[in-house]
Prior knowledge:
The protein is of the alpha/beta class. It has one domain: Rossmann fold, CATH 3.40.50.140. The chain is 38% helix and 17% strand. Helix 1 (11-21) crosses helix 5. The chain is elongated.
Amino acid sequence: MAEQIVITEKNSQAKDVRTAVGSRYGEILPAEGHLFDLLEPEDVVPAWKCWSPILLRPEGLYDTRPATGGNKAVKLKAIREALRTAKRVWLATDCDREGQLIGQEILDYYKYRGEVMRVLFTAQDSQTIRESFGRAKPNTEYARLYAVARRQADQIYNLSLKHTSKARRFLKVQLPLPNEPFLERNE
């Protein structure tokens, strides 16, 4: 098994990294965007299965589960197997918060504790990629860049709105006037 692996965000990135550095940094494994989904509200708090206009904010963070669709399960399995023996991971996802989140979610979900190096490149030509691997820094310098807060806030906001809109057939929303309720029952 590989002592090192490279995780990229997508197939095209894996192909470009493979062309630039070959297998010098280990097996190159592409993710397929987000390989994990946040749990649905009712999986966090069963009472949230009923539609109502409430803020769906759990006590902690929404946990994740492996995403379905496309080749996600196959890619996730390959990464999971490689992480079991890898002593070092080269995280070569996009160099933005979303890319950091995609890679970090994988490492966190599988509780990877080996060395992680962050490779940041803004162009996918071979020279830029090779130079980026040469300048890689420990992922600990970037780990908190990832967009957990944004993703969690989106989940709370979007799902709260979704639940409210589903409850809309029972409620109608009106602009509140002084001393009047914001929500009133439809008759």
